[in-house]
Amino acid sequence: MTSRSRAWAKSNEAPAPQLDAAAHADGLNALGSVAYWQRDYQSARQRFEEALAICTRAGPANGIAQAHYNLGFTAIFLAGDNAAAREYFGRALAEYDKLGDHLGASNALAGLALVDRATGDYEQGGQRAEQSLTQQRLLGDEFAVANTLGLLGSIISRTGAVAQAETLLREALTLHERAGNISGILWMLHELAATAAARGQPEKAVMLSGAARSLEGEFGGGIGVDVLQLTQLAHTAWEQLQPAQAQRAWKGGQDMDRQQAIKAALADG
Prior knowledge:
The chain has 269 residues and is mostly helical. It has helices at 3-11, 21-37, 41-58, 61-79, 82-99, 102-119, 122-139, 142-157, 162-179, 182-198, 202-219, 230-239, 243-254, 258-266.
């Protein structure tokens, strides 16, 4: 090919396709979400910050709201920065309200309730979670309902109303199982291990904790339960048992598959 023909060919090449800003931001938010559920919070935050930067420059407004919402979770679980998380969720709530996005707003409100759960403000957190749950039930979004049910159960369990909390947590577990949401299932197993410990059932608490940890190893990821102090309760339950009894309960949980673990968590006693 001559220099002239090469120049002609280059001038007639199709331009490289430009990725739409909204699609680019959606992709980054999706990648960040995968990293988040794998507990790679550093990578998740990076992707969410990139999505926020793109949407701030070029829109769309719902992308800005989504990125702020997502960054709220990494603030809690990566850095334990509850103040930053509250600001991110607050911004997301205001942005979703402006857009008339009722589901987004209810999710952001639940995010604020999660911050309340982490900081020990159970009264405000419960109110926010209940308000969010009411809206999500009206909208018929089962995934959101399951997450907020679990959060509300988690908050209520910390107030000492363990029986009421277990009812909510078991309903959430059932919904997560129906949706095939592994992360939600793992979270509920940890929560129900904690309520078993609170009810004076240390053997069941250790068993469910063992099942949750085993399934985390099999499937990877899950919510950062250490921030919610759930593993501390399971450790306390372990210390209430004789060493051989604790080891037996833990191994029993470790040997469970997902369906067996769910059945055990939903069972009374």
